[in-house]
Amino acid sequence: MLAIKEKWTQDRFENRTILTVFLPLRSSCFLSNTLKGRFMPELIFRQPDGTSRPVTTETGGSVMQAAIRSNIRGIEAECGGACACATCHIYIAPEYLDCVPAPRQDEEEMLDGVCAERKEGSRLSCQITVTDALDGIIIDVPDRQY
Ligand code: FES
Q: Which atom of ligand 1 has the smallest separation from the CA of 83?
């Protein structure tokens, strides 16, 4: 019985240590996923009115898919990710531009036809794959897609 109590006390101490170390660093989603042994990046979608919403998502899919799954307002994605509609237009904040690969030629051509102003950080969210490197990225949603 004593051994069980000592083990329980030790586990509680270790868990408290983990919480103390991780809680100030990241959101509870990060903590929960880390403790499960699986890291999922968090994307932060910011609306034109300044409100923002974090979305925790699996790696491997596109930023557009993460936005659609989370009902992010302003991401339409009419072609479903075929790089044929430009209604998944987003702005990558300048400090995060190095986290995403440069657009391919077909994406560049579609970006020429976006409805909202094209800026330096303009991208089609369906063409950006979610990787660990995108954790914490700020993504601005344009004021219109049509
Ligand atoms: S969803 Fe149509 S271009 Fe991205």
A: 3
C-alpha triplet 32, 43, 125: angle, nearest 5°: 140
Q: How far is the CA of 79 from the centre of ligand 1 (A)?
A: 5
Q: Going edge to edge, which strands form the sheet with 89-92?
A: 52-56, 42-46, 138-140, 89-92, 122-124
In testing the pocket of ligand 1, which one of 65, 72, 75, 79 has its CB within 8 Å of the most ligand atoms? 79
Locate all alpha helices (DSSP H) within the chain, ordered by sequence: 2-22, 28-35, 63-69, 105-111
Q: Which of 62, 68, 85, 141 to mutate to test the pocket of ligand 1 (most atoms within 8 A of CB)?
A: 85
State pTM to two decimals.
0.75
The tens place of each residue's pLDDT in the chain, 146 residues long, gives 445 445 444 544 444 444 334 434 444 444 444 545 678 999 999 999 999 999 999 999 999 999 999 999 999 999 999 999 999 999 999 999 999 999 999 999 999 999 999 999 999 999 999 999 999 999 999 999 99
126 lines ligand 1 (CB under 6 A): yes
